[in-house]
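Figure-free illustration: sequence to structure, shown twice.
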Amino acid sequence: MKFISKIADATHELFLRWVLINVTVAFAVAGAAYHGLLHIIYLNDPSYLTYLITLLYLAVTAYTGVRTYWVSRQQKLLKEFKQKLHEEDIVDITKTDSIIFNHLADLRATGKNDQTVILMCRSNDVHDKHEVIWHYGDVLVNLGLVGTVVGFTMALWPFFILPEFTFEAVKGVLGTISGGIAVALFTTGLGITTSVIIKVQARYLETGTNQLMTQLAYLTETKLIPILRVDEN
């Protein structure tokens, strides 16, 4: 990932990581489609769980992308604010809508130079919006396990309704048995795979969020609070 840091030094490094993950996934899906694997997976699933897993995965990925872009943008604005503060030594809380300006506005509104409670509330608010990503990452695995149950139920059900266990009777339900096993394998594999991808994205997002809050706390303690104290005096 070092080359990403080089090309994104002044841009959205975190968001570019999200893009890289999804471009890689897109190429993998295109390869699977080219070799006919998607046709096998989706057209041989009478339970339609693979469709549900895919739609849920796309929705969670899109939400993760939005949140990743927001955190990446806040990191960029924080860096620009720090640079401007170093060059001009002024603080303009009305210039833009970002976490650093809102944080400073809250500090001024409270009239206190202790940011502990404000920072904790702000951090909790940001992290709470990311909990849904982890939740649906687990839901994808659970849907895959449901597919396992449904698939093996479909595979074994003919044995419960066969009038007699003869070679001809078993031969007649082999298609149903193989179809049920296919459902079990495809839904489980798809659920686990999509869950892993979602959680990788979520891990990068959480790491970026922690870095953002750490940078915010450090900048406030070392630069902004001293300025507020000077203004009060």
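We now fold a second protein in the same way, so the two outputs can be compared directly.
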Amino acid sequence: MSLNIPFANDQQYVINRRRKPTNYDFSFLNQRSCTRSVEISCVNFLIMSGDGKLQCYNRSCGQTFDSASNTEKSCLHHPGLPKFHDAYKIWSCCNKKTTDFTEFLNIKGCTYSYHSNVKPPEPEKPAVKEMNQEVSCPKPLEQRVVLPRPDANDPLGHLPITIGSSLKPMLEKMQKEITLVPDIVNDSVIQLNTPCQNKGCHEVYKGEYSNTETCLYHSGVPVFHEGMKYWSCCVKRTTDFNSFLEQVGCSTGQHKWHKDKNVENKVKCRYDWHQTGNSVIISVYSKCPLPELSYIESNAVKLHIHITFGKDKEVFDEEIILFGIIDPSGSNVTYLGSKVEIKLKKAEAVAWKDLRLKEDIRNSNSVST
């Protein structure tokens, strides 16, 4: 068998679907005299479309063509590649873009050329570099050695101090006011209208005969609880503050015209704390602290705060059993105009759950932070 039929790259042709399929007899292919090339040519010839045209594979053409009439103006196609970026569909050759995929497929070509029945090569995919990744296994966490808790009864040492720039002018002003006031008042001289210092007494000094009068005062302390105000010595309760102040004393004695000497005027001050990785900072809010009458001392687990402040030399005194362990040698105190800042260096760089150690675990040898 000798068939003189032109074939291009042994391409198989699409059967024209509009025609009724024909039953072909391929039994002759089993004959040994038919070579492999002839077999392929025969098959291609038999399945070729009825009109003998070839399929063009240029992008966006989709037409069939006759090789005899194929010219350089026959095929209108896109020589570039489709791109999809930010919801846009684009042809790289003409930059025609749209967001609708159907419109993108219907965009006409931008270049004329020959029809081609050879499929264009697929764009080269970037070579995947094989990287030998080193798999690193996480190191096991080291068990932290808990430091033994020192004894809270160890000797206390004074922490070094610094006087801030905001406090210095306040101290100078206070010193000038003390110098300008003449020291004419002593124990033997009582000024007229001097109020009695006993709590709850409202009498004032009117002359020598005031010393013979009986003083009615409260020997207890004021208590404020759940809206009620009363004296601990007589327990007369009221909700009105003015009524509380006007309550007559329940104890009798002599008037006291001078404040007791060598008795500290102790008060409660507000304080708070925060922490960093290596430090615990305590702020005690006491306006115009007096460094020469104040001191902060500590050991590794106990802190003693004694601050004298203001013109009346009020005293804030507090002892704190610390939650964690500190290094007193790396700690310090700064006196400022409105507060005292105590910076404690942690012995271990761990977080504290609280500033104070609870009573039920104070006797433990160590504390888990």
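Summary for the second example: Helices lie at 36-47, 101-105, 168-180, 241-245.
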